[in-house]
User: Fold this.
Amino acid sequence: MSEPQELLGNAMRSERSEPAAPPPWYDRVKPLHDHSEILRSVVGSLSPAVREGLSLWQREHLDIHSLWMDALERANHILFVLDVRDHRFVYMSPNHERISGIPHETWMAMSFEQNIANIHSGDRERVAASLTSMHKRAVPHDVQSEVYEYRRVRPDGSVYWLREWGSCYYGPAAEPLVAAGTACDITTEKHRERELRDALALKNKCVGILVHDLRNPLTVIKGYTALLRDDMKISFEPHHLDMLARIERACDKLQSIVGDTLDFNAIEAGALALERVRMPVAEFLLRFRDLHAILGERKRIRIDAECSGEAGVGLFDPDHIEHVLENLLTNAIKYSNPGSRVVMRALPASAGMVWMEVEDEGLGIPQEERDRLFTEFGRCSVKPTDGEQSTGLGLAICRKVVAAHGGTIGCESEVGRGSVFRFSLPAAVLERSA
Assistant:
């Protein structure tokens, strides 16, 4: 048995056994005082099955060291102990050779630079910076832990993924002494994640094509319906006009579903392109109100705008923010009683952000249901006042669009009195004159 293995074995033995005399190697890490704590922390990062097995073996008074080593060899976990002072491994469990394809003797002789060189070029700088930072951090009598995932390259050129958990142990003078931890082979997990992402991307593409192709037929149906309704040569009975109005409302609903679905797919696929421009918030909101005031006519809901003189200038994509306001406004109308009022406000700018809100006098939202508002297909128990329907995507789209700008969105509500939806966007930096 090698000296590092002997040290590890002594640390893992049952407390009822008298500890063996420490080997010479112990002098290199003796300021750590209690090496069993290192191993216990390492064991804590292993899978529940391994921990349960170790506990069972202890209860049965078996040879913990030999069974521990056997478990490590069979598992996808690598146990390592690194002397931080010269960045060389003083122990590594045998199964690393199977995972890495690098002989044990080569690993043990590696310098820090050689170790880093085996990391995939896409992760090398990040991991090296993390390791260097942890090893140089000075926290007296403390332990600093890190968890990170990264890729390594085998000698044959194949790439594998590791999830590494490690702790750096410090001596009394705050000097880093030993790093110990585990690395788990997660290559299969990463491949499955990639397959899932590819399948999701394909699904989004197919849905996008299907939904996009619905736009033209809907436009045709709605157009011919409007022509029939407005044709002065045809004398329609009142019930015929009602049928045409229902067709138009159904087309509006489907067009809303098509728009929300396309927007949501674009956001999920990371294809949300923002064209930010400097925009006076009060001017933007007043223009939006003028164009959309008609939305409240059917339910006799008055739509007002109130703008602070200190609303400021925002830096945002006006088309996407119009969509956010459309969602908030249509929701306010949907959950408000006929004859009520909706107010859109441009609030005073603050903390480098511009603010807008939409307030209604509607039904309000119970406190316990507000967390679901901005989630995909999140619905609450409150029902629209005129039987309107929705996709359940509108507020989720609002949250993602606002977040893409670097802003936030939230809701304040009181049941029976209405709701306020408020969001922020980055303010434009004023250019100083020369």
Summary: The two ends are 76 Å apart (CA to CA). The mean pLDDT is 77. The longest helix spans residues 187-230. The chain is about 45% helix and 20% strand.
